[in-house]
Amino acid sequence: MTRPSASMTQAWLCVALLWFVACLNYLDRIMLTTMRTSVTDAIPMTDAQFGLLTSMFLWVYGLLSPFAGFLADRFSRSRVIIVSLFAWSAITWLTAHAKTFDQLLFARGIMGISEAFYIPAGMALVMDYHRGPTRSLANGVHISGVFVGSGLGGLGGWLAERHGWSYAFKLFGIIGIVYSLVLIFLLREGPREHSPALESSVPATKTSFIPALKSLFSRSSFFLALIYWGLLGVVGWGVVGWMPTYFKEQFNLGQGAAGFSATGYLQAAVLVGVIVGGAFTDFWSREGERRRITITVIGLCLAAPGILLAANTSLLVVAIGGLMLYGLMRSFADVNMMPILCLVSDPRYRATGYGILNMFSCLIGGITIYVGGMLRDQHVDVSRIFQFSAASLIACAVLLFFVKPSAKLNTDNPVVSPNN
Question: Where is mean pLDDT largest: 42-46, 324-328, 365-369, 382-386?
Fold first, then answer.
C-alpha cells in the first residue's frame, strides 16, 4: 500500500471511530429528557427541578468548554477524547444508581464536566487529519453522529417503559466504557498542522491558556465568528425549544405528533444537509478556501425563508417543508464552522477557539429559551420568535461575510500522513 493510501485510510478511520463517540455523547446527555415520567415516579421532583437537571448540564458544559478545548490543544487530543468518553460513560452508569434528586443533579453536573472535553478535541482531531478537499465532508460525517445520537435519545424513554429508568443508563454507560477501551488501541493522534507564518511551529506542549486567548481575540475575524456563532445559537435553540409548541397550537396536534413533526423531519433534513453540505463545500472550495465562507452565507440566506414559511402558513405540510428547508440549509453553517475557524485562528489554538464558541453558544441558547418563556407568559405569539430567528439568520450571513481568512495560513496537503 502506498503512503498516501495509508494516510487517507487512517484519516477516515479517525472519522469513523469518532462518529460513534459523538453519537454516544449526545445520546447519553439527551435520553434523560425522554423518560420524564419514569424518573419522576422513581425520584419525586417538581417540573422546575426536572428542568434544572438539563440546565445544570448545559451551564457546566458551556462554562468548561474553553478550558476543555485548551487541554486538547495542550495535550494529546486522542487521549483527551478517550479519557472523556470513559469518564462520562462511567458517570452515566453511576447515574443509574441515584436515589435522590440531589444525587441525580450532582451526576448531571459532573457529566457536563466530562462531556465538555469531547467536542473541541474531536473537532480538532478531525481537522488535524483532514485538510483542503476533505475537510468539510469529514466534519459533516463526524457531526452526523451528533444528530443520530440526538434522534436515538428516544431509546431512553422506550427502555424506561419496559425496564425502568435506570436500565438505559446502565446499558449505555457500559457500552461507552467498553468502547473507550477499544479506542486505546485504534485511535491515534493526528499530525498537528503548523504554520510558520503564524508562528505555529512551537510544539503544542508549549501552549498556554492566556497566550491562547490573546492570540484568538487579537483577530477581528474571531470576534465576528464568536458573535456569529452565538447568534446562530439563538436561532437553533429558539427553533428547537419553541417549534413543537407552535406546531401544537397552530395545527391542533397532540403533544407527541407536534414533537415529532417539529423535530423528526428537522433532524432528518439536517442529517442529509451535513453530508451533502460537506461534500459540496469541499468540491466548490477547490478554487479557494474563501468559498467555504461564501457557501455558508448562501445557506443561511436560504434557511431564513424556510423559518418564515414554517411560521406563516395554515398548512402543516407546508410548515414541515419550510422547517426541512431551514434544517437542510442551516446545516451548511454547522458543517463549516470548524473549517472556517481553521481559516482565522492559529493552528495551535483551534480546540480552545471552538471551546470558546461552544461556551458562548450554550450560554446564549439557555438565555434564549428562558426569554422565550417570558414572552409566552406575556402572551406574545410564538411566531414572533421565529420572525426574529429569520432576521437573525440574515444578520449571521452579514457577519460571516466580513470574516476574512488569514492570507498566511498554510493549507498544504489535504491529508497528512500520521507517519510524517
Answer: 324-328
Domain span at residue 121 reads: 9-192
Domain closes at, from 192, 220, 249: 192
DSSP 314: S
In a domain, 82, yes or no: yes
CB 69 within 8 A of CB 213: no
How many domains, the chain? 2
Rounded to whole angstroms, the Cα distance separating 405 from 224 reads 12
H-helix segments, 252-349 = 255-284, 290-311, 316-344
Cβ-defined contacts of 93-97 (< 8 Å, 24+): 93/169, 93/170, 93/173, 93/174, 93/177, 94/173, 95/166, 95/169, 95/173, 96/166, 96/167, 96/169, 96/170, 96/173, 97/166
Looking up residue 339, the CATH number of its domain turns out to be 1.20.1250.20
- The whole-angstrom separation of Cα 164 and Cα 170 is 11
Residue 172, in any domain of the structure? yes
Here the contacts of 218-225 (C-beta below 8 Å, separation 24 or greater) are 219/344, 219/345, 219/406, 221/344, 221/403, 221/404, 221/405, 221/406, 222/344, 222/345, 222/353, 224/399, 224/400, 224/402, 224/403, 225/337, 225/340, 225/341, 225/344, 225/357, 225/400, 225/403
Q: Are residues 152 and 220 in the same domain?
A: no
Q: What contacts 188, CB < 8 A, 6 or more positions away?
A: 10, 14, 78, 418
pTM recorded for the entire structure = 0.84
* pLDDT exceeds cutoff 60 at 2: no
Task: Give a yes or no: residue 2 inside a domain.
Answer: no
Same domain for 165 and 246? no
What type of residue sits at position 417? S
Q: Which of 137, 164, 192 is the last residue of a domain?
A: 192
What rounded mean pLDDT belongs to the chain? Answer: 85
pLDDT per position as a tens digit, 283-318: 998 888 889 999 999 999 999 999 999 988 889 999
Can you say how many angstroms the Cα of residue 173 is from the centroid of all Cα atoms in its chain? 21
Q: Do residues 71 and 117 share a domain? A: yes
